[in-house]
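Lecture 7 notes: from sequence to structure.
We start with the chain below.
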Amino acid sequence: MRHQTNLVGPAFSSTSSSPPPVRLPRYLSHQSPQPPAASTVATNAMTPTPQGPALAFVSLILIAGACLLILFTLLGGAVDGNPTNQFYFLEADTSGLGNAAETSRWTFWSACRVVDGNNVCPDVSPAYPFDPNRNFDTDMSFGYYTSFAQTRFGFAFVLIGLFFAVCALVLGLIALCSRIGSFLSSATCSVALFFQTLTAALMTAAFVEGRNNFRSSDRTATLGRYNFGFMWAAVACLFLSTLLLCVGGVTGKRDKTYTTRTSGRSFFGRKKSTRSRGSFIDPERQRRMEKEDSD
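Predicted structure tokens for the same chain:
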């Protein structure tokens, strides 16, 4: 019986029970086996670290406290009740100054009379300026040339700061579950910090000058410890919350327990090619090689 000789393998009988060896085509022999791509954990860039939510929560408490302190400052002189009737910027002896009471207290809304140690403000208006000559219709010179503008602008700035503080408080809820929320809340909080610091500086400069002018005229004058304490405490709260939100966002980006690489994707998001160099063969040559292998 005739025997057939394989092109690459040893001779074997056609009646042999063992199957002939399989020969791969030449174009497949050039390909190197590709290991399966390891599936990595795809983590969204917005996912915070375990420290992120904790820092965001502390920042929320600080921002909420700053909003409350700013509200206390605004309510002094606008709401007739305890404890807001104890909030003022300056208390001075105004006896003999036009139509002023014996003792007056300045707030954001009015120059209030003092009755039994409480503010009594019958007529209120927003952005009430600190200018005794205009407040009491007198022509006595106290040197208040800049206090009028400082207190007027201070009222506008405190409203802007309160608005951005409330926005930062809302965005802080997103910061509990997102690094993007931490950065947005931090940016908004920094704007609130800027306006609140500006307000506190303007009001402090205006009323410290007013206190000194009253004392130089042999009149008693004292600063309101509550209002100034609230204003500068709000500045401190906003500063700390801005810092903590920034730290929370940055530490979330540097956390090594998360990876931003996805399975089979490159750094710029394009899927990596799994084709080998051997697969880039001319189709005509490939068919010719297949025909030679089949002969």
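Points to note: Residues 92 and 221 are 4 Å apart (CA to CA). Residues 1-16, 35-48, 255-269, 276-280 have pLDDT under 50 and may be disordered.
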